Amino acid sequence: MKTFVSSFRTYPFNWKWIAPLLLLCFAVTAAQAQSLGYEGPTGVFVTPLASTAASPANGAGHPVIAYHVVVGGPVLGVFNTVSITEGFAKRFEVGYTREDHEAGTNAALSPLWDSGFNIVHGKANIVPENAFKTKWVPALSIGGIARINDTMLFDGANGQSKTNGDVYLVGTKVITQISKKVPVLLSGGVRGTDASLWGLGGNAPDFKARGFGTLAFVVTGPGKSTIILASEVAQQPQQIKTTNSSGVSSGVFDIPTSEVYAVRILPCPKHKLNIDAGVLHAAGNIGGGVNLNARARVAFGVSYGF
Questions:
Q1: How far is Cα 103 from Cα 216, in angstroms, rounded to an integer?
Q2: Under a CB-based contact definition with an 8 Å cutoff, are residues 159 and 153 in contact?
Q3: Measured over all CA atoms, what is the biggest interatomic distance in the chain, rounded to whole angstroms?
Q4: 291-306: per-residue pLDDT in tens?
Q5: DSSP 3-state assignment of 15?
Q6: Are 227 and 203 in contact (CB under 8 A)?
Q7: Cα(182)–Cα(226) distance, integer angstroms
Q8: What distance in Å separates the CA atoms of residue 119 and residue 99, rounded to the nearest whole number?
Q9: What does the CA dihedral 5, 8, 10, 16 come to, rounded to 10 degrees?
Q10: What's the rounded Cα separation, in Å, for the pair 92 and 58?
Q11: CA distance linking residue 240 with residue 73, whole number of Å
Q12: Can you name the residues that pair with 124 across neighbouring β-strands?
């Protein structure tokens, strides 16, 4: 895998032309969306959906496993996650994700990201989709994510690790009233977070409310496959918490809203296999002389539900 992802980092990517290409093929039916996001919850790439991992009404379902890789560029390096998520009682899911890191090649900044961390998450569906016998009612869920031993930015030689996390409310609706041949998936919510770039940038100075959303179009592909075209946006805390050893105030940083253009492929409706590819627009020059060089970065993922 190191050879595979390193080959992507060696090219002077211009992934801007890839984004519209990816939007020509994103596969999996929204109703069958059992794919895990980058951090483990059932979702798209970086935003959770209100759906939960499949399970019977009176027991636990079969686990869903996933692997994701984000090629973050010469500064951030490469992030790999392995996830397992379990649904139960048709309303709940819990899971664990291990995030490992391969350092970048920037001699000045890459050593600041030198370790992986652990992620645990949970989600509860409080209103099922189309509840109250109304076709326009979205599914509503609440959830939480905890990132454990996430290394702080500019922590010097101390290797100081911190825990950060999110709590969120998300609503998701599959709209078939406009066109049954091309359903539209709308999802959005708000999260309270003290993590910068989902923990990839370390901790934020304070707990902030940040919005996120997803728009996806579901089309039928060849051989009974389904194709979804999706884009995501996720506001980020604008600042990164630093330690005194850096001599840089967190107030100088300015983290923009992140964008993701993604493609998901369900090759066969008989199997819960999802293949994801995406382009992440995260952060470039964030002030204080720091360029994270994390714009137009490629990411891949695969999920399988037993």
A1: 33
A2: no
A3: 59
A4: 888 899 999 999 998 8
A5: helix
A6: no
A7: 10
A8: 7
A9: -150
A10: 11
A11: 19
A12: 92, 142
Class of residue 272 by CB neighbours under 10 A (exposed 0-12, middle 13-18, buried 19+): buried
pLDDT tens digit sequence for 134-188: 888 999 999 999 999 886 555 444 445 578 999 999 999 998 877 778 889 999 9
Q: Tell the burial category of 88 from Cβ atoms under 10 Å away from its Cβ (0-12, 13-18, 19+).
A: middle
* Domains with residue ranges and CATH for the chain: 2-305 (2.40.160.40)
The rounded distance, in Å, linking the Cα atoms of 49 and 45 is 10
Q: Which residues contact 127 (CB under 8 A, 6 or more apart)?
A: 137, 138, 139, 140
- The C-alpha atoms of residue 65 and residue 85 are separated, in whole angstroms, by 6
> Which pair of structure tokens corresponds to residue 236?
């980020």
Each residue of 113-144: b (16+ CB within 10 Å) or e? beebbebbbbbebeebbeeeeeeeebbbbebb
SS3 call for 180: coil
